[in-house]
Amino acid sequence: MHQSCQLTCKHCKMSKPFSNFFDMTFSQMIKELMGFGLSEKESEIYLASVSLGVTTVQNISKKANVNRVTTYAMIDQLTKKGLMSSFAKGKKKLYVAEPPERVLSMLREKEDAARKTIERFTELLPQIQMFSGLSSTKPVVRFYEGVEGIKTIHEMSYRSKAKDFIHVEVAKLSAGLFPPGTSKFRDSNMEKIAKGDRTMKVISVGPCPWREHYYKAGSAHEVKFISQEKYPLMFEFGVYGDITAIYLQKGDYMGIVIEDDEVARNFRLLFQFMWDHADTTYKA
Known about the structure:
alpha+beta; Arc Repressor Mutant, subunit A; Endonuclease, Chain A; seven-stranded mixed β-sheet; two-stranded antiparallel ribbon; 10 helices; 9 strands; about 45% helix
C-alpha cells in the first residue's frame, strides 16, 4: 500500500495519493449526489462515510467538516433512507455507509413508484376530466410566465382537437424565442401543419422570415402581413379550438389562456377582420 494512501487499493501505482484525488473531487461529487435527492449535508456525510469505512461519528464529522450535532442528524436521515447503518463494538458505536450501489437501488425504487403513480393517474384522468367545466359556466382564465410557461401553452394547443389554428404574431416581440428543437410540442404542431393534419393562418405584424419555409411548402400554412409602423401591436394571440392564448412581453414573456367558446369565437371574428385587410406579401 502506498504510504500516503489511506485506503487499500489493488492498483496502488497512482501518480497522486488517493486522499488527494478524493479531496480534489469531493465538492463535485457532493453536487452530483444532490441531484439524486440527497441534501448537501447528507451528501457530505455519506461521501465521508464511504471513504472512511467502519468508523466513529467523530471521524465522520472531521472528514466531512460538519459539526457533530449535524452529523448525528444526517446519519439518522441517511439511516432512514437505507444508506447508512450502525452497530456497537464494546462501548463504542460505529457507523458504516452502505455501498454506492444502494443509491442506484434507491433511485430505481423511486422510478418504479413514479411509474405506478403515472399509470394510476392516467387511468383516473378521463374521470377527472369529466368534472372540468361542470362547476361554472364562466370562462377559465390561467396565467403563465416565462419560457417554460409558454411551453405549457404549446402543449395545450398541441393536445387541442381543433384542426384549424389562427395566430397573430408580432415579430419584434417573439422572433427567435423558440428556435426548432427548443419546444417539443410547438415543433410537433408544426409537423402536423406541414403534413396537412392541421391548418394554420398567421397574420404577421412586420416580417417573419422564419416562417417562410412553412408557408411556401403548401396551403396548410398561410401567412398575411400588416404594417408594424401603422399597427404597432404589443401583444400576440392565437386561437386553438376553444382556447384563446394572449402573449405579452412585459419584462419577461407571459401568456394568458382563456378557455371559453364565446371568447374564442369573438377572437376568430377579430382575426377574420384583420385577415381581410392584410397583405399577402410583406411591404416595408
